[in-house]
Records
---
Amino acid sequence: MRKKLLSEGSKEFKYEIREIVKKANLLKSFGLSVHWENIGDPIEKKCQLPVWVKDIVADLAQQNRSYGYCPSKGILATREFIAEQTNKSGGVQITAEDILFFNGMGDAISTAYQLLDATSRLIGPSPAYSTHSSAEAAHANTEPITYRLNPSNHWYPDLEELENKVKYNPNIVGILIINPDNPTGMVYPLETLKKIVAIAREYKLFVISDEIYNKIVYNGARSYALAEYIEDIPGIAMKGLSKEVPWPGSRCGWMEFYNRDKDPEFNSFCNALDNAKMVEVCSTTLPQLALPLILGDPRFETHRTNLNERIGKRSALINSILGEVPELTFNPTFGAFYNSIIFKDGVLNNSQTLPISNPKIKEKVEEWCRGVSSDYRFVYYLLGATGICVVPVSSFCSDLQGFRITLLEEDEEELRKVFNTLRDAIKEYVRS
Ligand SMILES: Cc1ncc(COP(=O)(O)O)c(C=O)c1O
């Protein structure tokens, strides 16, 4: 090439949740039986959608209009339905004009960061869901700016650090909240969320709240949506069908703009998002037609409650297996379907191993472990020795050393087996 092709920011795109799949598949080709604990796709983990949901989709698939483009902002009746749902909370009030559809939240996230000026930064949580942190870092051509979620304080945000970083970095224009959170499975108290909004108010920032797991709570938790506590601060809630229906293959998500009228710069940002989608034409049509029929069906709440109870039961089972391992900092989860489990300081080193009998697998694992951080080393040995595929926490933009698991295994016996094996592997690894 006569000139370099890649932008500086392109190296910031990292997604270990899928990167590890390449390694696991290679080991699978050497005969390893892999248990996938890496990806948050309930369908992949055999969650069965109820027949009434499939009937709605099948019926729409018979209708010709499902195959056409739709309005760039999204189907009006669907946006009206969503606005009505949001307004019911009694917080900030919106209209269909404040809603913009995307091809999944992944699309919403990358479009939002692309449109921000390169010097304007969003501060987000660490550990961070990689789609946000990578897109933010890529737009700014440098590393993400983060505030710490504290594993020794229920994974709640370190508000003092957040405020200090905002105060001393005038380039920060917005705060990202992920609630319930991926990768920690934590749900934040209203008080914490209100304090974040207070910081936004003081420093004239906007707030983005990723609420893709908003309806996925259990163990008595209640998840507050941005609309309920944002008051008069400009903000964007990001929501979608992927996890709550669950229907990740729909590639259907949307943004809700709050308080556009309160700040002209923020209003221009929302207009630019509308225009960016217009240039792309529109987002997926059929899932938008299905949305009010599924979420508005009286059976939806029972369906979601059942799924949540099952996730809650798995969370409790995992607590009982891993909660007492002395080398770990373990927090019970309350929302979403992940848990990030951290090794206490000084537990890991770079000579620990697990026995691997297959010489080809052993050789690969040893090769991958050269020069990596200590949680990657654990993850590779765990994979090679047991077939359990988890994601290292340090890949979520964090200095912590640990691993993320999912709470999605439908078969209780299998769940028990996998987590007992994981616990035994941890014990053996840290003592090796
Ligand atoms: C916090 C969070 N936001 C967004 C997404 C992406 O959602 P979508 O399937 O709508 O692109 C995920 C997917 O795992 C997620 O965990």
---
Amino acid sequence: MSVSVEVRDLSIVFGSGPSAVKVLPSVSFSVKAGECFGLVGESGSGKSTVLRCMSLLTDFWKGEVEINGRSVRDIPLIERCRTLQMVFQDPYGSLHPRQSVRTVLNEPLVIHKLDDREERMRRAITDVGLPVSFLDRFPHQLSGGQRQRVAIARALILEPALLLLDEPTSALDVSVQAEILNLLQRLREERGFTYIMVTHDLAVVDHMCDRFAVMLRGEVTEILPHEAIATNGATHAYARELISASLEYEGIR
Ligand SMILES: Nc1ncnc2c1ncn2[C@@H]1O[C@H](COP(=O)(O)OP(=O)(O)O)[C@@H](O)[C@H]1O
Ligand SMILES: [Mg+2]
């Protein structure tokens, strides 16, 4: 099952009193069921904060986030975990060094009282292109790309419909990045996932995303189809600049 997402007037303030900072003044966008939607913009523009708010890792925001027309705040935690999962940038930091892959994958199954655990773990690990024997490995016995595959398997094990991907390949070597992007692409084609993907790399957006939002200082300046990258079809000055910088970079390579 695919899900649609609606983010409306999402805003958040960090700190209070004179040190209060409005990190997201107001963010709105809609994502169609089965779509891959990109969030791009310079470092500090609020991309990760948007994903953290959507998943309620940060919960003191205002506005509305709806999944299939239902407010995320109204979806009980257990059900929310089975609807939406996040994958983080750093596959080193996101896995506990003393936990085997089996422990990592088993934990959500226990919490959610799912049976056929061994079978589900085997399926999850092979779905991300790793052999079943890797269930007995620890993070230090895995390469960066393999760790990110395990992080993706952990996100998939509860069979969510929506994945929030925060720079899922930017900590990886270029050759490994392509493997992980191809894996994500294949999983989306097979399962009809909806993806919201943060990246600073417009080549990744062009390869993966249907549409993308350009963020600047906590606001969405423009939402564009991925085709707008090749032709630089942006109208907003900042989005144009971002795209032309990326096209120049691509040209030099
Ligand atoms: N917990 C927090 N407390 C205070 N400021 C924060 C917090 N989280 C993020 N910020 C600030 O919000 C802004 C946006 O951060 P972030 O969403 O991480 O940006 P991006 O992912 O686009 O690089 C930054 O200026 C950051 O310092
Ligand atoms: Mg970030």
